[in-house]
Amino acid sequence: MVLPSSSMFLMFSRIQSIKEESQLETLDEDVSSSDTMMERRIRLKSVNVHITCTLCSGYLIDATTITECLHTFCKSCLVQYLDDNNTCPTCEIVIHQSHPLNYISHDRTMQDIVYKLVPELQENELRRQQQFYKSRGVPFPKSIGANEECVETERTHTQPPDSDTQDYHRSDEQVNICLEGRGVSMRNLKRKFIRCSSQATIMQLKKFVALKVFNSSAKHTDIDILCNDAILGKDHTLKFISVTSWQAKDTPLMLHYRQRVDL
Ligand SMILES: [Zn+2]
Ligand SMILES: [Zn+2]
């Protein structure tokens, strides 16, 4: 999801206010100094309020912004909070009566700023996540990146992208899914963990499975895709399904495919 441009404005005003604070501080500290360095040291303390999650009081991890009011929190803190609430923890605006999770969005710019400003935060977080997955014997999703398969049904692999604008939706929000076959006629995929755009639809996933299992994406009509044993509509996006049927859990979205059953 692309954040509205007002978010960029907010980001800009945040940076502006960080700059102003740092100028104030240098004025306080260094009036007598003849130091004319272009770069000035800013105390992390003076920036902290802009890069801290008010829910956990830690530095923002997986910064996630509410698209209604543009307040930002850690993804895990916010998702957990929205389990029981539908309002912003800061300004208490009602995000959405029933589906607040549809109105939050990963804030990459903010996260980049946090990682730039806080030394070793990114390395420590990565290490922490790797240990978490290791202790549970679950493959680490971010390490799948190297040999991931992307759902590219509209184009073939032999065609190179025409230009920079064709990025196979890699700049979209991504979703991790685990895709398993059901029934005797359905062999399992060579790689069942897939990372692809959250904007991909069930129809595209069906074509992908048909291509892998039957060597023909045209056989997508023979495929049902299920989540929690319910057949999924072809027009739903993975974003919609992970939010409505998978409760945005921090684990790959579990989907099954099977030979289509006429009801
Ligand atoms: Zn937090
Ligand atoms: Zn808010």
From TrEMBL:
Among the Pfam families in the record, one is RAWUL
Which coarse location class applies to the principal site listed for this UniProt protein?
nucleus
GO molecular function terms listed in the Swiss-Prot or TrEMBL record: zinc ion binding
Q: Does the keyword field hold Membrane?
A: no
**UniProt cross-references to InterPro entries, sorted A to Z:** PcG_RING_finger, RAWUL, Znf_RING, Znf_RING/FYVE/PHD, Znf_RING_CS
**Domain RING-type, which positions?**
53-92
Alphabetical list of SUPFAM superfamilies matching this protein? RING/U-box
This protein's record includes keyword Nucleus = yes
State its location(s).
Nucleus
Any Gene Ontology CC annotation: PcG protein complex
Q: Which UniProt keyword terms apply here?
A: Metal-binding, Nucleus, Zinc, Zinc-finger
PANTHER family with a match to the protein in the record: POLYCOMB GROUP RING FINGER PROTEIN
What's the protein name?
Group RING finger 3
Which species is the source of this protein? Answer: Octopus vulgaris (Common octopus)
Taxonomic placement: Eukaryota, Metazoa, Spiralia, Lophotrochozoa, Mollusca
